[in-house]
Amino acid sequence: MPFIMMKTSQTVTQEEEVALKTAFGQAISCVPGKSEQVLLVGIEGDYSFYLRGEKSPVAYIEISLFDTPEHRGYASMTSLVTRAIEEILGIPKEQIYLHFHDIAAWGVAGYYMEANR
Q1: Of 84, 73, 80, 82, nearest to 30 (Cα)?
Q2: Which of 30, 51, 74, 105 could in theory staple to 56 by disulfide, Cβ–Cβ 3.0 to 4.6 A?
Q3: Residue 108 is inside which H or E element, if any?
Q4: Nearest Cα to 49, choosing from 82, 97, 15?
Q5: Structure confidence at residue 69 (pLDDT)
Q6: Would you give the DSSP letter of residue 72?
Q7: Measured on CA atoms in the order 54, 55, 57, 58, is the torsion positive or negative?
Q8: What is the pLDDT of residue 116?
Q9: CA angle centred on 40, ends 44 and 24, rounded to 5°
Q10: pLDDT above 70 covers what percent of the chain?
Q11: Has residue 76 got a pLDDT over 70?
Q12: How far is it, in rounded angstroms, from Cα 6 to Cα 45?
């Protein structure tokens, strides 16, 4: 199950939250074998970010993906996620940061899974 957690300094309305969730659901399909049907999304607004010592409009996105060592689709996903945040929240792309986590082990529904590497 992929997980996308976004923290932003912006206030996020319910309408913007739904638009972001939808955009993330579309972007995750860039990664082979991943889809919105198995995607978990978290969105936290009004987070205090200081960029270059000043409070700034920023978005920080953590994307956790299980068993994707070749990083196929990451570049396309980065572009789509960045564009969505820029369009929906008005944050300049230079202030949108994505951090990918390659997950080799995952637990869900009481089951432990390990990547076949």
Answers
A1: 73
A2: 51
A3: strand 105-108
A4: 97
A5: 84
A6: T
A7: positive
A8: 79
A9: 75
A10: 99
A11: yes
A12: 8
Task: Kindly calculate the radius of gyration of the chain based on its CA atoms and give it in whole angstroms.
Answer: 15
117 has pLDDT over 80:
no
Write down the residue that tokens 């082990």 correspond to: 105
Cβ(51)–Cβ(59) below 8 Å: no
49: left (phi over 0), alpha (psi -120 to 50) or beta: beta
> Measured between alpha carbons, how far is 30 from 75 in angstroms, rounded to an integer?
9
How far is it, in rounded angstroms, from Cα 75 to Cα 21? 19
Closest CA to 43 of 83, 88, 75, 73: 88
Q: Amino acid identity, residue 69?
A: P
Taking CA 37 as the corner, what is the angle to CA 20 and CA 45, rounded to the nearest 5 degrees? 25
